[in-house]
Every structure is written in C-alpha cells, then in structure tokens.
Design a protein that fits this description.
By secondary structure, this protein is mostly beta strands. The protein contains 1 helix and 8 strands. The strands form 2 sheets. Strands 1-8-4-5 form a 4-stranded mixed β-sheet, with helices on one face. β4 and β5 form a beta hairpin. The protein is globular. The two termini are 26 Å apart.
Length: 110
C-alpha cells in the first residue's frame, strides 16, 4: 500500500469497529497518508481517541502514532475521515520500518 513500509504489512482495523463502519480505505500517495472514510454507527458514541500501533513479527510494539481526524461528506451524508501519516511514521521508525509486520488501530487508552 505504501513504499515507506513493507508491502506485506497486515492492517488490523478492529479498533474502528467499536464505533464506525469502514466505508473506504485508500493511500494518498502525494501526501503519504493512508485515509479511511468512516461512518459512525447508529446509537453509538464513536470516539476519535484512536491511534495506529506498529508491531513486528513477534508482536512487539515498535511505535504508536495518533490518527489525524477531519469531517467529510460522502453521498450527501456526514462521515468521519481518519488519516495516518505513513511518511512521518517511517521517519519515526527509521531502520525499524522494515520490521513492521502489522499495524493495528486501537483506542488510545488500551
């Protein structure tokens, strides 16, 4: 999905499922960001206190980075847009970026 991280990275989006339906995921190559379009679930308070956590193959956390949030519109409805700055994340990880096997979305308090 991005040249800043290994192609085989597994994306675990379970953290979104507590309050959102993931409508779309894409890579904005120009900005170096992964972008998720999210629809808040009905009758649920959808928290934006989420972060991306990078893990190596053994499950050891390598880095955490909060998601960037904005409001958006899709098909005439309001949606939430979450972004992960992959270029910045790779800069934080430096040579460890090649060791990333999984990126999980989780609540900040977990």
């Amino acid at each position: 999905m991005t040249k800043s991280l290994p192609e085989a990275v597994v994306w675990d989006l379970a953290g979104f499922h507590h309050g959102y339906e993931v409508l779309d995921a894409s890579m904005d190559q120009g900005a170096g960001r992964v972008v998720w379009q999210l629809e808040p679930l009905p009758r649920v308070y959808a928290s934006r206190a989420l972060e991306a956590v990078c893990y190596d193959a053994a499950g050891k956390p390598l880095a955490e980075l909060p998601l960037l949030w904005s409001d958006g519109r899709r098909d005439g409805s309001s949606i939430d847009v979450a972004e992960l700055d992959v270029g910045y994340l790779a800069g934080v990880l430096k040579e460890r970026a090649r060791d990333v096997a999984r990126i999980g979305i989780r609540r900040v308090s977990e």
